[in-house]
Specification:
The complex is a heterotetramer, with 2 copies of chain A and 2 copies of chain B.
Chain A lengths: L8 E4 L5 H9 L7 E8 L3 E2 L2 E10 L3 H17 L3 E7 L1 E3 L4 E9 L2 H18 L2 E7 L2 E4 L5
Parallel strand pairs in A: 1-5
Antiparallel strand pairs in A: 2-7, 3-4, 4-6, 4-8, 5-7, 8-9
Helix pairs in contact in A: 2-3
Chain B lengths: L1 E5 L2 H6 L3 E4 L7 H11 L1 H8 L4 E4 L2 E3 L10 E5 L7
Parallel strand pairs in B: 1-5
Antiparallel strand pairs in B: 1-2, 3-4, 3-5
The chains are: A alpha+beta, B alpha+beta.
């Protein structure tokens, strides 16, 4: 199921283990007191339509570069100790993991702010696209709030 | 030679995933959209009407960006990653 | 290492698995799109002192009751789908898990707000006490910001 | 009979973890602090000076709360759970 946790920025087909990713981040410092994680998962409903599958595509290299920029800016702007970001591509079933952001810091406040900023920024600047499969067929999602 | 990439919904519009365009000198985005219009009129229109985002060498660009030989230009529909 | 994930409110000696707790919460609904978790861990430094161990004590029954009240209020006030709260007691080494809050919702925004509120409220109203062991001895922590 | 519980740092001050106090009728918090003062003068002082939080039957209470036979009263130092 899970893959190597070596890199703090990853775009991968395989699922990941939240526990493993958190443990990898814990190794960065003995002074971590707060860890906020955001995990995005596949919802069954989207604008009233029943979704049967999701499918993600990314622009290789550019997407990874954007995630690394988000990581660096989060560390710099919010004073967290570190951050990891993982996004899956390919087919995703309902309930499966899509994206994980782990923000580790000395105290909880900065990790909440950094984590919430990072997922919003990821949606805004990272070249990743979602295709939803419903009973009506497949559609690329063009607008995410 | 310029590499042109189309992602997600734009692949359907351009009817291709990737194209290679031979150029003798640097060209403007307008010139590139004219070249693209010859094979994909609708895609050319999308670019001229600024309905797509553009990256050059994996950095965001715009209609003023000059494209050089060897560059990788990508046309990007609105992003929808995240969850 | 990990224990049953049956109850959504637990105070326990044993460590927990973040992945297992998240997977247990995912089973609540097929319409979960966002999961925010806060994990508190043992920091080495506290007010300039090097900590070698932490030790938590709780008021049995009352502490569990308070956590359940926090859970219910978070669901009601923030519109999340569900929440689980786990707090460990007994000796905790540096880097180990102390507390976990998992907030699941249709969208991410409410899960961030609910999770951040819940950890602040937990610190405010739950009868749990922390003892820090440093080179100077053991002290009960009387004030947490 | 009233059960009295001391937690964390208050155990050191009260020099005990739990006490049982026989009462004939309901009593006030002031009366309880007088009884406690006999065995733990410092603890009695803490209660009178409102230096501790109080719960009765696992609900937060205050110096006006009346204590009935069978109640569980707990004296609680500032909480420090969470991380």
């Amino acid at each position: 199921m899970s893959t190597t946790t070596d890199s703090k920025i990853r775009i991968q087909l395989e699922d990941f283990s939240v526990t493993d990713e958190i443990e990898a981040m814990k190794k960065v410092s003995r002074n971590i007191g707060g860890i906020t994680t955001f995990l995005g998962t596949g919802r069954e409903l989207s604008k009233g339509e029943n979704i049967t599958q999701l499918n993600f595509e990314h622009y290789p290299k550019m997407a990874e570069k954007k995630l690394e920029e988000i990581r660096q800016q989060a560390i710099k702007d919010y004073g967290i100790i570190d951050m990891s970001i993982i996004h899956r591509i390919g087919p995703i079933e309902i309930g499966e993991n899509i994206v994980l952001i782990v923000a580790v810091g000395e105290h909880r406040k900065e990790t909440f702010v950094a984590c919430e900023w990072a997922i919003a920024e990821l949606k805004r600047v990272t070249p990743i696209w979602k295709r939803e499969t419903t009973s009506k067929g497949e559609v690329w999602v063009q607008d995410t709030p | 030679m310029i590499t042109v990439k189309y992602f997600a919904s734009l692949r359907t519009i351009a009817e291709m995933e990737e194209d290679r365009i031979e150029v003798e000198n640097s060209i403007s985005m307008d010139q590139l959209s004219d070249i693209i219009s010859k094979t994909s009129p609708k895609m050319g229109e999308f670019i001229r009407d600024k309905k797509v985002m553009i990256s050059v060498n994996q950095e965001m660009a715009d209609s003023d960006t000059i494209i050089h030989d060897g560059d990788e230009v990508a046309f990007l529909p609105p992003f929808s990653g995240g969850s």
